[in-house]
Amino acid sequence: MGGSKKIPMRKCVGCQEMKSKKEMIRVIKTPENAFLLDAGGKKNGRGAYVCPGGECLKLARKNKGLERSFKQAIPEEVYEALEKEMGKLETG
Predict the structure, then answer these.
(1) pLDDT over 90 percentage in the chain
(2) How crowded is residue 29: how many other Cβ atoms within 10 Å of its Cβ?
(3) Are 17 and 5 in contact (CB under 8 A)?
(4) Contacts 24+ apart (CB under 8 A), 43-50
(5) pTM as predicted
(6) Which residues of the chain have pLDDT under 50?
(7) Bridge partners of 60?
(8) What phi-psi label fits residue 66: left (phi over 0), alpha (psi between -120 and 50 degrees) or beta?
(9) Distance between CA atoms of 58 and 66, rounded to whole angstroms?
(10) Which helix (H) or strand (E) covers residue 28, if one does?
(11) Sheet arrangement for strand 35-38
(12) 15 in Cβ contact with 42 (< 8 Å)
């Protein structure tokens, strides 16, 4: 029963590229309708994936990638909070 382990792939909602799940940052919508960044990828909630650079988040905002993933409008302050949080992840 050897063989290679399957790598889970996810599509970025910004650049639309398929990458391994570990390379990406998960944006989740909790049951309470809050939007959070889930760096570990283990939190409960509906998820969408974005590449770690801030560029893909900007693209996702422009092409409404997160809106499509979550099937709802996303308030501006959510994007601003996600951008701040992503900035912390990049520097820290």
Answers:
(1) 42
(2) 20
(3) no
(4) 46/70, 48/13, 49/10, 49/11, 49/12, 49/13, 49/21, 49/24, 49/25, 50/12, 50/13, 50/14, 50/24, 50/25, 50/26, 50/86
(5) 0.83
(6) none
(7) none
(8) alpha
(9) 11
(10) strand 25-29
(11) 35-38, 25-29, 46-50
(12) no
